């Protein structure tokens, strides 16, 4: 019987499952006896990166776009082009591979819980969460991360 926690991992903008998996190597190594990680690529390729090379840098993905075919967390918009397809993909993946004990979302993979998508969160659940907020994230600002983290924030080893 598998007693490991199952964690679904959602990458950030301009990344994919393979790249995010490589970026989480130290975390996966430290939790190898406690957790099993599952990585899913967003369904939308970023225009201009569909072809012309090999490797992870040429398979850049997005969960949704705030403009016709681009994304910026700084855009003031009600456009979330592609979000429904992404939610359908995550649901299908969850149905086929779940249930999962945790979700690890990075940058845009986490940002989907923003105000624009709040209608998906009418029913509130109480769950433990860990928010790691990077000072150098250029996609999701610290203020946006704090707004989404309705928990105590740990800053440099101290809960504030």
From TrEMBL:
Family per record: Belongs to the LovG family.
A Pfam family that the UniProt record links to this protein: FSH1
Species whose genome carries this gene: Pediculus humanus subsp. corporis (Body louse)
An annotated GO cellular component: cytoplasm
Top-level taxon of origin: Eukaryota
PANTHER family reported for this sequence: ESTERASE OVCA2 (PTHR48070)
The keyword 4Fe-4S is annotated on this UniProt entry: no
Keyword Chaperone (UniProt): no
Keyword annotations of the record: Hydrolase
Encoding gene per record: 8235118
Gene3D superfamilies membership: alpha/beta hydrolase
GO molecular function: hydrolase activity
Start and end residues of each Serine hydrolase domain: 1-109
Name of the protein described by the UniProt record: Serine hydrolase domain-containing protein
UniProt-listed InterPro entries: AB_hydrolase_fold (IPR029058), FSH-like_dom (IPR005645), LovG (IPR050593)
GO biological process: response to retinoic acid
């Amino acid at each position: 019987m598998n007693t490991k926690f199952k964690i679904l991992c959602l990458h950030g903008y301009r990344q994919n499952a393979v790249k995010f998996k490589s970026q989480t190597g130290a975390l996966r190594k430290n939790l190898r006896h406690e957790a099993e990680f599952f990585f899913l690529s967003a369904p939308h390729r970023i225009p201009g990166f569909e072809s012309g090379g090999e490797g992870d840098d040429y398979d850049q993905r997005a969960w949704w776009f705030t403009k016709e075919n681009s994304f910026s967390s700084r855009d003031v918009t009600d456009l979330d082009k592609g979000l429904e397809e992404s939610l359908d993909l995550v649901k299908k993946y969850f149905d086929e591979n779940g249930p999962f004990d945790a979700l690890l979302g990075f940058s845009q993979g986490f940002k989907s819980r923003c105000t624009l998508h709040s209608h998906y969160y009418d029913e509130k659940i109480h769950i433990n969460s860990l928010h790691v907020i990077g000072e150098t994230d250029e996609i999701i600002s610290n203020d946006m991360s704090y707004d989404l983290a309705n928990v105590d924030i740990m800053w440099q080893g101290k809960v504030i």
